[in-house]
C-alpha cells in the first residue's frame, strides 16, 4: 500500500496592531468585506473577520476590542497584499472636481 504524502498548509505571516480608537474598523487604505463575527469569551465585544476585496488577494483581517481596556482595538492582518492600497476613484474624482469648481468662483 502506498503512503500518501500530506501537504501542509503554509501559514501566512501575521501582523498585529493595538490602537486607541472609538471606531472598530480603521481606514488602512484597502477595501474589506466582512465575512463573519464571533462572540469572544470573557468580553462583551465581538470579534469581526474581513477579507480583502481585490481579486486574487487572500489577505484576511481580524478586528476585536481588548477585554481589559475596551478603548483599545486589536487589528490582526494575516498575509500580504499583492497590490497597492485601493484608492476610491469616484471619491478622488469628486474631490478634484470640487477643487476645480471652487477655483472658478471669483
From TrEMBL:
Alphabetically ordered keywords of this record: DNA-binding, Nucleus, Transcription, Transcription regulation
Superkingdom of origin: Eukaryota
SUPFAM superfamilies from the UniProt entry: WRKY DNA-binding domain
Ranges of residues in domain WRKY: 21-86
Positions with biased composition (Polar residues): 92-106
GO molecular function: DNA-binding transcription factor activity; sequence-specific DNA binding
Subcellular location: Nucleus
Keyword set includes Nucleus: yes
InterPro entries given in the database record: WRKY_dom (IPR003657), WRKY_dom_sf (IPR036576), WRKY_plant (IPR044810)
Skewed-composition ranges (Basic and acidic residues): 78-90
Gene Ontology cellular-component annotations: nucleus
SMART domains with a match to the protein in the record: WRKY
Region (Disordered): 78-106
UniProt cross-references to PANTHER family, sorted A to Z: WRKY TRANSCRIPTION FACTOR 13-RELATED (PTHR31221:SF17), WRKY TRANSCRIPTION FACTOR PROTEIN 1-RELATED (PTHR31221)
Descriptive protein name: WRKY domain-containing protein
Organism: Punica granatum
Amino acid at each position: 500500500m502506498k503512503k500518501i504524502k500530506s501537504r501542509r498548509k503554509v501559514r501566512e505571516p501575521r501582523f498585529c496592531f493595538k490602537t486607541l480608537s472609538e471606531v472598530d474598523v480603521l481606514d488602512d487604505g484597502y477595501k474589506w468585506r466582512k465575512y463573519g463575527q464571533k462572540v469572544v469569551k470573557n468580553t462583551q465585544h465581538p470579534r469581526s473577520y474581513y477579507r480583502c476585496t481585490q481579486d486574487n488577494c487572500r489577505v484576511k483581517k481580524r478586528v476585536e476590542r481588548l477585554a481589559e481596556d475596551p478603548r483599545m482595538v486589536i487589528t490582526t492582518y494575516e498575509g500580504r497584499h499583492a497590490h497597492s492600497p485601493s484608492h476610491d476613484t469616484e471619491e478622488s474624482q469628486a474631490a478634484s472636481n470640487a477643487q476645480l469648481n471652487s477655483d472658478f468662483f471669483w
